[in-house]
């Protein structure tokens, strides 16, 4: 069953472990009341509720976001989106017309969103400065990482709030205890879509997105060969790999792969080449990023004496994923499907 939308306010940090239980019902109830009111607001609506029962958000909406309380008096209209994960969620919800600036892109958006994204202005290849951010006159900065919102970056959250600019961090990127998903799950990812739908007053679009992705995920048949895998993100001297509680683990598990670094209680971790050789993964998942491509990683694996003799390297048992799928977002389900398809091709 789809999980209820995330609660607009968590009661306390001590209750964070159960934050999606009773508290989430408040937002669900508010949406339900709004639906009922909209359906009964006119005689025509009463006669044809199926044509007019559209969910709406009740404002003000207060959300505890990574430990920072954010109140929305109305749906944001001018958004600066930092990181691909935030931009792509906005595009998936049909909110491209509210994006006044993008920054820190991890690569091109998926083809399905290319037309809508083509007219958007990038204000920085990296984290934008506060000056560059404020030049766009946003009412919201939607950040992919907490670190995007700093004095050296787009601005500290309190400082931006004093200027009338709300801030919101993708919840899966929260790092503080009680806020970081542990582990990240597809239920959590879908709940984040619903929370964004509530913030932007498009709960129906969010519900449709969740339904589509949940159906797609349910239709995937995981690989059942019992394969172990290394998720190799970056690094030559010391590789940086997907660990046991983040998006890489979530994707590999859904695809039927056993993560050789699953016992590390973190989203990502450094792992020595000696440990990787000892783990002897059946498959190596390669993250393809513009700054560190899959081909570069393959070349390093095949030239490095420590890994050149690995059976997975000798047999070129590689699976490639784009960097944006490594963070919670609208690409995660497609990533599972792609991994399963590539595993099937390897077996063939």
Give a topology summary.
Blueprint: H1 24-40, H2 43-47, H3 49-52, E1 61-65, E2 68-72, E3 79-82, H4 84-92, E4 99-103, H5 114-117, E5 122-124, H6 130-135, E6 140-143, H7 157-162, E7 166-169, H8 186-199, H9 203-219, E8 228-234, E9 240-242, H10 247-255, E10 258-259, E11 268-270, H11 273-279, E12 283-288, H12 294-303, H13 305-308, H14 311-314, E13 318-322, H15 332-347
Parallel strand pairs: 3-4, 3-6, 4-5, 6-7, 8-10, 8-12, 12-13
Antiparallel strand pairs: 1-2, 8-9, 9-11
**Which strand-content bin applies to the residues?**
15-25%
Rounded to the nearest angstrom, the radius of gyration is 21 Å
Please trace the helix and strand order, writing H or E for each element.
HHHEEEHEHEHEHEHHEEHEEHEHHHEH
The structure class reads alpha/beta
How many helix segments? 15
3D shape:
globular
Largest sheet: 6 strands, mixed
Distance between the termini: 35 Å
Q: How many strand segments?
A: 13
Spans with pLDDT under 50 lasting ≥5 residues?
A: 1-5, 7-52
Report helical residue fraction.
25-40%
Write down the overall mean pLDDT: 88
């Amino acid at each position: 069953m789809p999980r209820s939308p995330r609660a607009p306010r968590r009661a306390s940090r001590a209750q964070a472990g159960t934050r999606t239980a009773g508290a989430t019902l408040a937002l669900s109830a508010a949406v339900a009341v709004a639906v009922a009111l909209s359906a009964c607001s006119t005689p025509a609506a009463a006669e044809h509720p199926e044509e007019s029962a559209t969910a709406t958000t009740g404002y003000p909406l207060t959300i505890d976001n990574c430990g920072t309380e954010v109140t929305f008096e109305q749906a944001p209209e001018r958004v600066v989106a930092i990181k691909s994960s935030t931009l792509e969620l906005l595009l998936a919800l049909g909110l491209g017309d509210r994006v006044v600036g993008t920054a820190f892109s991890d690569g091109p958006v998926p083809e399905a969103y290319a037309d809508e994204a083509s007219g958007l202005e990038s204000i920085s290849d990296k984290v934008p400065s506060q000056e560059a951010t404020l030049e766009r006159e946003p009412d919201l900065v939607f950040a992919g990482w907490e670190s995007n919102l700093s004095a050296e970056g787009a601005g500290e959250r309190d400082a931006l709030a004093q200027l009338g600019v709300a801030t919101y961090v993708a919840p899966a990127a929260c790092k503080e205890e009680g806020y970081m998903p542990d582990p990240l799950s597809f239920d959590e990812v879908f709940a984040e879509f619903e929370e964004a739908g509530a913030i932007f007053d498009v709960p129906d679009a969010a519900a449709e997105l969740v339904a589509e992705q949940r159906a797609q995920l349910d239709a995937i048949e995981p690989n059942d060969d019992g394969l172990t895998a290394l998720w190799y993100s970056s690094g030559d001297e010391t590789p940086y790999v997907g660990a046991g509680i983040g998006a890489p683990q979530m994707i590999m598990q859904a695809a039927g792969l056993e993560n050789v670094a699953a016992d590390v209680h973190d989203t990502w971790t450094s792992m020595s080449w000696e440990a990787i050789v000892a783990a002897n993964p059946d498959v190596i998942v390669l993250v393809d990023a513009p700054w560190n491509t899959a081909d570069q990683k393959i070349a390093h694996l095949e030239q490095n004496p420590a890994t050149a003799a690995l059976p997975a390297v000798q047999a070129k048992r590689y699976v490639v994923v784009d960097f944006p799928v490594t963070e919670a977002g609208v690409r995660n389900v497609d990533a599972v499907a792609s991994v399963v398809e590539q595993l099937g091709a390897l077996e063939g």
